[in-house]
Amino acid sequence: MNRTEKAAVITKIRAGAENASIAVVVDFKGMPVEEMTRLREKLRGNGAELLVVKNTLARIAFAGSPHEVIKDHFRENCAIALGSHDPVAAAKALTDFARTSKNLVLRHASLDGRFLAAEQIDALARLPGRKELLARTLGTLNAVPTNFVSLLANVIRGMLYALKAIEEKKAA
Predict the structure, then answer these.
(1) 73 by DSSP, 3-state: which?
(2) Is the pTM of this model over 0.90?
(3) CATH 3.30.70.1730, applies to 3-127
(4) Is the Cβ–Cβ distance between 82 and 17 less than 8 Å?
(5) What is the side-by-side strand order in the sheet with 22-27?
(6) What is the pLDDT of residue 157?
């Protein structure tokens, strides 16, 4: 690999790191190509991508990026998963795949510039996703006016029952 190719790889990694909200470093030693392809497809479906690069190029690319906290932790065979849309979805995809694969090990990550250990990535993966959180928020926001309407309806209903009782009493 000559200097221009290395510069192109560094630029690609740096651009991906700038746009990513999460960067996860994984160990893939001994993983067959078919399994790596399945992992990449799963990540792509969750708005993330997997890059396999040389450690020195990754260190250079991550220097000065929002995920600089992980630049000194590149050792041995590792790949970088960059998630740009939903960090929880990317963490879930990696964690689920790591449970089924004996060759994939989550090492550490950077979430918006904060260092995460492997246990913290698992904790992040257990959180509800963006869509579920939005649904919960919408349900909570919808509950307030619904309860208010029910409360007002009960007040009016009580008044109508009282008027009906008065009408029946006068009719008798």
Answers:
(1) helix
(2) no
(3) yes
(4) yes
(5) 48-52, 79-83, 22-27, 105-111, 114-117
(6) 87
Query: Which tens digit of pLDDT belongs to each residue from 87-120?
Result: 888 899 999 999 988 888 999 999 988 999 989 9
Distance between CA atoms of residues 104 and 115, nearest Å: 20
What's the half-sphere exposure (Cβ side, CA atoms, 13 Å) at 63? Answer: 8
Q: Determine the angle formed by the axes of helices 118-126 and 87-100, rounding to 10 degrees.
A: 110
How many angstroms separate the CA atoms of 62 and 96, rounded? 26
Task: Read off the amino acid at residue 107.
Answer: R
Range 46-55 average pLDDT:
89
- When pLDDT is averaged across residues 131-138 and rounded to a whole number, the result is 86
| Cβ atoms of residues 83 and 24 within 8 Å | yes
> What is the rounded distance in angstroms from the CA atom of residue 52 to the CA atom of residue 81?
9
**Which residue type, as a one-letter code, is found at position 167?**
E
CA angle 135, 138, 139 (to 5 degrees): 85
Diameter of the chain by CA atoms? Answer: 104
The one-letter amino acid code at 71 reads K
CA atoms within 13 A on the CB side of 9: 16
